[in-house]
Amino acid sequence: MPTFKEAKSWIREAARELGAQVNGREAQALAGAYLTTLDTDPQLRQSALSYADPTGERAVKAWFRGITT
């Protein structure tokens, strides 16, 4: 499972890739929301910890893209 700092950093990176503006507080709130969701959703937890994405980076970015579109 990614750490809070990793999730925050990956969310900001995904936002840059999408051309979105995400400030530090928004990134913190989104990282917290992601980690809370990850704790409560076993299906998301499984996909985030797969062999193809052992750090969870792709899962965090996909989650962020999903909530912004």
Explain this structure:
The protein has 69 residues and is mainly alpha-helical. It has one domain. It is built from four helices and no strands. Helix 1 (4-18) crosses helix 4 and helix 2 (24-40) packs across helix 3. The protein starts with a helix and ends with a helix.
Described by strand count, sense and barrel closure, the largest sheet is: none
The overall strand count is 0
Unreliable spans are none
Give the rounded overall mean pLDDT. Answer: 85
In quaternary terms, these chains amount to single chain
Order of helices and strands: HHHH
Number of domains: 1
Q: Globular, elongated, flat, extended or rod-shaped: what is the shape?
A: globular
Helix share, percent: over 70%
Number of helices: 4
Distance from N terminus to C terminus (CA atoms, Å) equals: 24 Å
Q: Approximately how much beta-strand content do the residues carry?
A: under 5%
Q: Could you tell me the radius of gyration in angstroms?
A: 11 Å
